[in-house]
Amino acid sequence: MNKTLTLSSLALAGALALTGCAAGSEPGTSAASSSPTSMSGMDHGGGSMSANSAPASSAEYNSADAQFAQLMIPHHAQAVQMSETILKKDRIPASVTDLATKIKAEQGPEINLMTGWLQSWGQPTDMATGMASGMGMSGMMSDEEMGSLDAATGTEAAKLYLSQMVGHHEGAIEMAKKETTDGKNAEAVQLSKDIVSSQEKEIQEMKDLIATL
Question: ∠ at Cα 129 (65, 201), nearest 5°?
């Protein structure tokens, strides 16, 4: 499900709020600075990082690693916004709010993790809308679609959230698989694999939930 990237102001603000490091090293080089948020021991669904494992900031990376993080940050930010929107509504089935809570809890820390990588690599943490769209960010909701979710109520809102998030997850999986193939940084590649694994399971869960509503 490919859609033109039109980040809502909240999603973009969420991504921009995490910026703060000027460009420095070129892809393929290593950096000595550390991430502002320690994610040691965090489980992304496919495995956990050991507290003694080398952080991504001290490892080599390439342009695919940087692009993966730069695109996935606003993509995750929109998923968090969508989840926050559904969690504010009344008369939403508990199974749907439980899933929205889980998605928010997973993707928020991953935003911090990827932002820390980019800062330590000396790469921009924000991506201009036109550039990101041209680089193939998939599954993003348009402003109109986000407005529809905001306006929907009850069971209609639950179904809309689930169907939109299925497409959103499919886009994230497409981006993650590209990183798995093209990336160099071991921690970034592992995160991409974890995203594929966890979001494929959530897609099936959401499809099952849609059938019950």
Answer: 55
